[in-house]
Design a protein that fits this description.
Elements: H1 5-24, E1 31-36, E2 42-48, E3 53-58, H2 60-72
Antiparallel strand pairs: 1-2, 2-3
Length: 73
């Protein structure tokens, strides 16, 4: 196994887990999570169960703007 296979596996497993959590949790709380790609970049995602809106793999600035817009509405 090369040095990138293990991190890629865990990245994909974590992403799948987050998606499953989104569907299994019946809370109305905003769900926010981050993922890290091979280059070390952090990407943010969120799901609002109340509105069923979501945003995936965006920058910190974009996720904060999305949350602020959500809070104003």
């Amino acid at each position: 196994m090369d040095k990138y296979s293990k991190p890629v596996f865990w990245f994909r497993l974590h992403s799948i887990w987050q998606l499953l959590r989104k569907y299994l949790i019946s809370s109305s709380e905003l769900q926010v999570w981050s993922t890290c790609d091979r280059q070390g970049n952090i990407w943010w995602s969120a799901y609002d169960p109340t509105t069923k809106h979501s945003i995936y793999h965006v920058s910190e600035e974009q996720i904060l703007a999305w949350i602020e817009r959500r809070d104003r509405d």
